[in-house]
Amino acid sequence: MQDPYLYITLATTGLAGTAIVAVAALRGWNGWLDYKRAELVRYPQETAPPSAVARIEVADLKERIRKLEAIAAGVDL
Q1: 0.85 exceeded by the pTM?
Q2: Sheet strands (E) in 1-77
Q3: Which of 4, 13, 23, 36 lies at a C-alpha separation of 20 to 30 Å from 55?
Q4: For the chain, how far is it from start to end, CA to CA, in angstroms?
C-alpha cells in the first residue's frame, strides 16, 4: 500500500495549481474589461443610431449591387 501522504500531497498540489490558474484567469479577465472600458472612453459610440431613411437607402444600394453582380455574372433574376 502506498503512503497516504502521497495522496494528500497530490491533492494539495492539484488544488493549488487550480487556484493559481483561476486567479490568473480572473486577473486577465479584469484587465481585458479595463481595456475595453478605456477603449469606450477614448472612442465613444455615436450618440444616435442611423435613421430609418439611411438604413433603407443602404439596403436599396445593396440590392442594386446584388442585381448588377447577377447581370455581370449572366444570371437571370
Answers
A1: no
A2: none
A3: 36
A4: 80
